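Work package 3, deliverable 3.1, input record:
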Amino acid sequence: MRPISFEITKSAGPLSRAGVLYTPHGAIETPAFVAVATKANVKGVPSTAFQALGVQGIIANTYHLYLSGLEAIEKAGGVGKFMAFSGPTMTDSGGFQVFSLGVGFGKKISKFLPEENPFLRRDERHSSEKGSPPPAVWDEDLATSHGKLAIIDEEGVSFTSHLDGTLHRFTPERSVEIQHQLGADIIFAFDECTAPDAEYDYQKEAMDRTHRWAERSLKAHRQNVQKNNEQGIYGIVQGGRYADLRVQSAKEIAGMDFDGFGIGGSFSKQDILGILDKVNNELPKEKPRHLLGIGEPEDIFIGVAAGCDTFDCVLPTRNGRTGGIYTRGGKIQIPNAEYREDFLPLDKGCGCPVCQTYTRAYVHHLFRTKELLGPVLASQHNLYFLTNLAKQIRNALLDGTFEKFRDDFLAKYRLTK
RNA sequence: GCGUCGGUGGCGGAGCGGUCAAUCGCACUUGGCUGUAAACCAAGCGCCCUUGUGGCUACGUAGGUUCGAAUCCUACCCGGCGCA
């Protein structure tokens, strides 16, 4: 019996479904939004608040926890115990950092291909030489301040710590080994997350490499008999914004004996639904699918419609920390002047503990005065907003009212913008 | 009263003859954030024309020197400090 299992409670559409994901530390009712706890902490949100905020599970990061020291976490009994959370846990493999500390370092690049894409145009203009861009940037200017952060080869990735410049190396085997030490219920294969503007040839090269790494990750995991009984492993589909690569990737990853699947990398915003449809069509129905790092309310609806079960995203906590508040009428900037004397809750009618207690004017004041409590309250509200949205979506799927719920929600959500 | 230092945009504080509507910080206004390098980043911030190698008014006040002054000179006003 595998440590991870998935049960489809109701298939609601061609792909969408409500289900239950069982782990050694309890179940997650899906669709679900999993909180990001990169460094064994959901920024601004103590684990004691998880239940009230509807947080069913968390995802921590291999790269960050490796750099900050694994021994204490291992001795504590794993990330979950370490952070005093008894529910289901996941760890990301560190593959995303190949991107964010590699080609993405020093740039403001989102996971989505920007509509205006200066990089592409620049490439097209100068591209007499066709072929792959370098897999990672050795930028001498950055090197002087931060070191050379990520370089990829067939075996793995060499990293320079963003904290102290020390050199480290991850391979699929090493990532899995670290994830064993971290002890989360679900671990992820080591992959390469590519930049949204990566050209086709490079994207394919990275995808093929990710497939090889997936096999090695899987093998490394299955070989460890004890951990294999305690932790499940997800393979990650790549392929960037190219539908044909995505399909190929999904087929290949689906052909491996993973317990579930992560869908990673970057997307073209316009085509995301079509791409996810195609990916999930290739993945075995009975296994769970996690859409990595995606997270705006609009995107969750798209993911669910396309058959994704779990989601994670830094946005609720990052937006919260920086003053962005999710409301059913759209996102608002709570530090803005208009909320100085607004004595309504952050989101009127919201059931979260923050909205039960505090006003916009107060949270506005906390941000203006740079009180720590401002980002804390905002993060907690936002987290509730996303977990609750997923929960409402789940209920709608069970009731067969998903489309109506989605259309009603989005109509209001987009009203103000 | 004498001496001395100083008065710059909401505040602090640069500038000390042209390239100054004036460095910078704070404050203020707004925008962004999608497997967290992020309690962060960006833009704006005298007035006017929605445009610009645009116009106007500005560096205590009033004059003056100069092709040209926030920058030099004179007087005055105001403030700090020292001595009476």
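The radius of gyration of chain A is 21 Å.
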